[in-house]
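ARCHIVE CARD
Drawer: 12
Card no.: 0347
Subject: one protein chain, sequence and derived structure
Cross-reference: see card 0346
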Amino acid sequence: MGEHQILVTGATGKSGRRVVRRLRAEGAAVRAAARGGEHFFDWTDRATWDAALEGVGAVYIVPLDGTALVRPFVERAARLGVRRVVLASGRGIDVPGYAKDSGGMLEGLIDGEAAVRESGLEWTISRPGWFAQNFSEGFFAEAVRAGELRLPGGDGAASFVDAEDIAALVVAALTGDGHSGRIYELSGPRAVTLEEAAATISEAAGRDVRYVPLSVEEYVAELVGQGVPPEDAAAFADLVEPLREGKDEHVSDGVPRALGRPARSFGEFAASTAAEGGWG
């Protein structure tokens, strides 16, 4: 994007901080924005938007869950001279019944996609499925550290995508040609069950991690017993439903289509996490 900076929102998150690292490794001028990042940015405080967007030519947009703020942000970005946007979205958002939306996130995601498509800017949409990094730094990480994945996942599988692949695609779309007007659905190269994931992590980490399948009722009761409000416990159970029902087993072609190489496997993710000391 020439002399213009690249703005990365959500710059402390799983994909955002990897995007920042990769862009800087390529010598790009990056504004890493987040509430706790180098450049202060708060989705809920529109007074922070202009300072984040000033002098920016391209933006990686990581929306705030449960909000519909992408549309006004993109409109403001266009007025301030931004020419290219890459939006973080989610696989399955356009599939009716793909997942329960008790957390209220779907409407904002759908409107965000529509906003970038209607913006008149060069746009790309990234739709990743389940992050492999949920096991190392996200949803499942605490259970992995404890040695037991106690989840209502049944024997369902998911084609977990490595956040490094997400970041590589985002950087390619922010800095290169040929990605404008494209929606990339992202996954790993094959589906992995929770039992297989636990075994793979065990081998890489050199310690035992096992999967304990629970019913939804057992899972919610355990969370409530740990002090989680019942409505939040039910929402967590809903997040696992697509995995349990096998709705995220399919393999998407976004990584090879965008990057010209295979997606990283779950085994590669587990091994690289172990090499970085990420399994504790």
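Annotation on reverse: The two ends are 39 Å apart (CA to CA). The longest strand covers residues 122-128.
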